[in-house]
UniProtKB/TrEMBL annotation:
<dbReference type="GO" id="GO:0006508">
    <property type="term" value="P:proteolysis"/>
</dbReference>
<dbReference type="Pfam" id="PF20582">
    <property type="entry name" value="UPF0758_N"/>
</dbReference>
<keyword id="KW-0378">Hydrolase</keyword>
<protein>
    <submittedName>
        <fullName>DNA repair protein RadC</fullName>
    </submittedName>
</protein>
<keyword id="KW-0482">Metalloprotease</keyword>
<dbReference type="Pfam" id="PF04002">
    <property type="entry name" value="RadC"/>
</dbReference>
<keyword id="KW-0645">Protease</keyword>
<dbReference type="GO" id="GO:0046872">
    <property type="term" value="F:metal ion binding"/>
</dbReference>
<dbReference type="InterPro" id="IPR037518">
    <property type="entry name" value="MPN"/>
</dbReference>
<keyword id="KW-0479">Metal-binding</keyword>
<comment type="similarity">
    <text>Belongs to the UPF0758 family.</text>
</comment>
<dbReference type="GO" id="GO:0008237">
    <property type="term" value="F:metallopeptidase activity"/>
</dbReference>
<dbReference type="InterPro" id="IPR046778">
    <property type="entry name" value="UPF0758_N"/>
</dbReference>
<feature type="domain" description="MPN">
    <location>
        <begin position="102"/>
        <end position="224"/>
    </location>
</feature>
<keyword id="KW-0862">Zinc</keyword>
<dbReference type="InterPro" id="IPR020891">
    <property type="entry name" value="UPF0758_CS"/>
</dbReference>
<dbReference type="InterPro" id="IPR010994">
    <property type="entry name" value="RuvA_2-like"/>
</dbReference>
């Protein structure tokens, strides 16, 4: 049955307008994003199939173009829309980081980093450069590598920190495996960066590892 034939109170869009977006299920939210279905399937049916195929809303947003577009009813246009939604959300969080104290908003930092790194197919190392009040000055992708590792050079990071006149920095990198657990190399690298940046009076406040829908904080685990 087409959604237009549903009771008004059960239609996702009308439900959102009446009760708010937080009351909708993942399937209903995806259905609003998809807007239309295909022959024999409503937008809700397609949304349900997307979630079943990828396993979670996070995995839908992290899907590659080829994996997303191979499903019935999906295509380049919807994939482009999906990426636009992600980028708008990331930029909104970036604006909030620039206006507020990053250390007082751990959830904001986590959400920003997850949106920035969760869908990367190779390892990427980024830095959030902060001023003396812990407001974000800039976020940069500092290094990128293969599926398993990225080469990180402390000297280059020091140059970027001095360029931004940063007082502190938060590091983050993703694990394409999806497992947000620090390796021995991650711990050694973090300490090396902390020591190197201390020579130019730049504090390393945290280092996050981004996995599949999760973000591990070195600071919260006393690893920094």
């Amino acid at each position: 049955m087409a959604i237009t034939n549903w009771p008004i109170s059960e239609r996702p869009r009308e439900k959102l307008l009446q009760k708010g977006a937080s009351t909708l299920s993942d399937t209903e939210l995806l259905a609003i994003f998809l807007r239309t279905g295909i022959s024999g399937k409503s937008a809700v049916d397609l949304a349900r199939e997307l979630l079943l195929h990828f396993g979670s809303l996070t995995n839908v947003f992290a899907a590659s173009q080829s994996n997303f577009c191979q499903l019935p009813g999906m295509g380049i246009a919807k994939y482009a829309q999906l990426q636009a939604v992600l980028e708008m959300a990331r930029r909104t969080l970036d604006e909030e980081l620039r206006c507020g104290n990053a250390m007082n908003s751990p959830k904001l930092v986590r959400d920003f980093l997850r949106l920035s790194l969760a869908n990367k197919q190779h390892e990427v190392f980024i830095g959030i450069f902060l001023d003396a009040k812990n407001h974000a000055i800039a976020t940069e992708e500092l290094f990128s590598g293969t599926l398993t590792q990225a080469s990180v050079y402390p000297r280059e990071i020091i140059k970027r920190a001095l360029y931004h006149n940063a007082a502190a920095i938060i590091f983050a990198h993703n694990h394409p495996s999806g497992i947000a657990e620090p390796s021995h190399a991650d711990k050694v690298l973090t300490q090396s960066l902390k020591q190197a940046l201390s020579l130019v009076d730049v504090k390393v406040l945290d280092h996050f590892i981004i996995g599949n829908g999760t973000a591990l904080s070195f600071a919260e685990h006393d690893l920094i």
